[in-house]
Design a protein that fits this description.
Elements (H helix, E strand, L loop, with lengths): L2 H17 L2 E4 L4 E6 L3 H8 L12 E7 L5 E9 L4 E5 L4 H10 L8 E4 L4 E8 L2 H5 L14 E5 L8 E6 L6 E8 H13 L3 E2 L2 H11 L33 H10 L4 E8 L8 E3 L5 E11 L7 E9 L12
Parallel strand pairs: 1-11
Antiparallel strand pairs: 1-7, 2-5, 2-6, 3-4, 4-5, 7-10, 8-9, 9-10, 12-15, 13-14, 14-15
Length: 321
């Protein structure tokens, strides 16, 4: 495919997301079912958020951290009643399951199963996404963040429930849809009938950066602490102890962050991992994600996410790489 064709495809996806809706394959994320008595309690004890307060139908983002408060992964936990569904980042499922299993105490009752191959996962994003998914899941438009609805999309299989989860949006609102592979394939056909285009990985990366959302392998790494990436909603400051709590609580109590995640625009493309400097050549941060945003006149805008010293996190500050 020529550069012009790629540019046109990205323009079309970006325009569709900002005026209608798009969908993307998110099957590279992990899906883990947690069962038995302590399914929410163990996650609560080992991660940053209060998962014990979750009612059935509710979910939250929570971060597993090291002893010094560095990010292992940011996951989403959904309370489905007799089980909890945990969504992990790409490539972290085994690490998180092992992390949980190593911290099971003698009297704990906890089991986990990787169902990433059994359940499919797509995302629906854009300004029209809430109204769109509301045609299948009543109440979708008013669903709080990380809360979810379950319904059967196949009348012949009433017990085959497909989940709709409210998530941070791209170019508007955002939803995840998780269900069996066959059900999702049929659902994709219905999305096509509503003129919902599939977004490529390249387009999704550009929209993610535009939205300022951190991602595993880029920002969600052991280089950073959750608050530095703006993950305040994934941290409870009123719960009991968890691994890494002391560092995070100290950072919050002081009310001052050493570094912050920011969006940047660049005159020329730089590689992820590049060191950013100020106009005097002093190192002030790291470029963590990069993408090219095409425009209708073929003038490409280079955008990225960076973690920089807080003093340089304001608007219109000139940095070099």
């Amino acid at each position: 495919m020529s550069n012009a064709a790629i540019n046109n495809a990205l323009i079309e996806i970006s325009h569709t997301a900002h005026t209608h809706a798009i969908w993307a394959d998110l099957s590279n994320k992990g899906r883990v079912i947690c069962t038995d008595r302590d399914r929410l309690d163990l996650i609560h004890r080992l991660s940053t958020n209060d998962t014990l307060k979750l009612e059935v139908g509710e979910g939250c983002a929570t971060v597993f951290t090291t002893a010094i408060g560095r990010i292992v992964d940011c996951v989403v936990v959904l309370n489905r009643g007799e089980q909890a569904l945990m969504i992990t980042s790409q490539g972290t499922t085994d690490k998180i399951r092992g992390w949980l299993q190593r911290n099971v105490f003698f009297n704990d009752r906890f089991q986990s199963k990787d169902v990433s191959q059994e359940l499919g996962h797509i995302g629906i994003f854009g300004v029209y996404s809430a109204a769109l998914v509301g045609q299948w899941w009543s109440g979708a438009e008013t669903l709080p963040m990380y809360h979810f609805l379950e319904t059967s999309l196949d009348e012949s299989k009433p017990d085959d429930k497909t989940l709709l989860i409210r998530v941070p949006g791209l170019a508007g609102d955002g939803y995840w849809v998780i269900g069996t592979a066959g059900t999702l394939e049929n659902f994709k056909l219905q999305l096509a009938e509503h003129h919902v285009m599939q977004a490529s990985g390249e387009a999704m990366e550009a929209l993610r950066i535009e939205a300022g959302l951190p991602e595993a392998g880029h920002e969600l790494t052991e280089d950073y602490i959750p608050l530095e990436l703006g993950l305040w909603d994934a941290v409870s400051f009123h719960k009991g102890c968890y691994i890494g709590q002391e560092i995070i609580a100290r950072m919050e109590s002081r009310g001052k962050l050493a570094k912050m995640l920011v969006r940047v625009e660049m005159e020329a493309s730089l590689p992820a991992g590049a060191t950013l400097t100020d106009t005097e050549g002093k190192s002030i941060g790291t470029l963590t994600s990069v993408a090219s945003m095409p425009s209708l006149n073929y003038q490409t805008k280079h955008v990225g996410l960076a973690v920089v010293k807080t003093a340089y996190a304001g608007p219109a500050i000139t940095l070099t790489g």
